[in-house]
Amino acid sequence: MTEPTKNITVTGATGLIGRQLVPLLRSRGHSVTAASRDSGVDLLTGQGLDEALADAGVVIDVINSATPEDSAEAFFRQTAASLSAAAAKAGVGHYVVLSIVGVEAMAPKAGYIRGKLAQENAAATSEVPWTVLRATQFHELAEPITESLIVGDEVRAPAALIQPIDSAEVTAILARVAVNEPLNTIHNVGGPQKMSFSDMARAVLRRQSRTLNVLDDPSATYSGLNIDETTLVTDDAAELGTTRLVDWLARR
Ligand SMILES: NC(=O)c1ccc[n+]([C@@H]2O[C@H](COP(=O)([O-])OP(=O)(O)OC[C@H]3O[C@@H](n4cnc5c(N)ncnc54)[C@H](OP(=O)(O)O)[C@@H]3O)[C@@H](O)[C@H]2O)c1
């Protein structure tokens, strides 16, 4: 059965997820307003927001902060407050936010993550029915994370698990969730494999034909955060992607 078409506004439309999501939704017949500062919509100032939400049945927030860690919290607080108020005013029927698995555990330690929680809460406490999709780290992050763990001529990996997922699969799940009935709760999605940071680094280095020594280092952090073994991975109820990191790396 063909799904009913909707008017959907995507904020953050030019980003990694937004630029995959907009054409995917359009290919299914939905009418999409692609909002970013390029198109005259600034969620920090609110400029262009009411116009971008006029007639929207669904809004999907995949905005991201380009500001440093200490101002990212304020960025998400302010942009989400503007968006939730504008969505309620416009009578939007479904408010969808893309967030990150493990935000509660990491929030006390990082401004960016506190900002993501504030972004989630803005949806959950708004007048608009909502869904928060929490995803694990995208495959695109495996290389930069590995690079960030290099100290001298070795990789010092946190003693923790990570569960990378293809951003295209996150996009597809987001597109499905957004056109379905609001869940009014959090839906977790993760990659097909939970692996140690050291195994992720070895996969990346193998693909790059580099031969650095990889060590598990209990004092190593993830972007400056001390994380527990399971902070970044999903529980058993989560929806899983199918593309393994090694296969994704191999086709790059
Ligand atoms: N990376 C991961 O592994 C991961 C995992 C789970 C969830 N997430 C979440 O996924 C979301 C999307 O990430 P992404 O990588 O697709 O982001 P991204 O590539 O950094 O794109 C950010 C988007 O936000 C827009 N933007 C920034 N400031 C704006 C403003 N003031 N007003 C309006 N638009 C603004 C940008 O467009 P302009 O600059 O043109 O305005 C761009 O379209 C993020 O919220 C992130 O937390 C990421």
UniProtKB/TrEMBL annotation:
Any GO MF annotation of the entry: protein-containing complex binding
InterPro entries documented for this protein: ComplexI_NDUFA9_subunit (IPR051207), NAD(P)-bd_dom (IPR016040), NAD(P)-bd_dom_sf (IPR036291)
Pfam family, one: NAD_binding_10
Coiled-coil stretches: none
Residue ranges of domain NAD(P)-binding in the record: 12-154
PANTHER family per record: NADH DEHYDROGENASE [UBIQUINONE] 1 ALPHA SUBCOMPLEX SUBUNIT 9, MITOCHONDRIAL, NADH-UBIQUINONE OXIDOREDUCTASE 39 KDA SUBUNIT-RELATED
Protein's name according to its UniProt entry: NmrA-like family protein
UniProt source species: Mycolicibacterium chlorophenolicum
Upper taxonomic lineage: Bacteria, Bacillati, Actinomycetota, Actinomycetes, Mycobacteriales
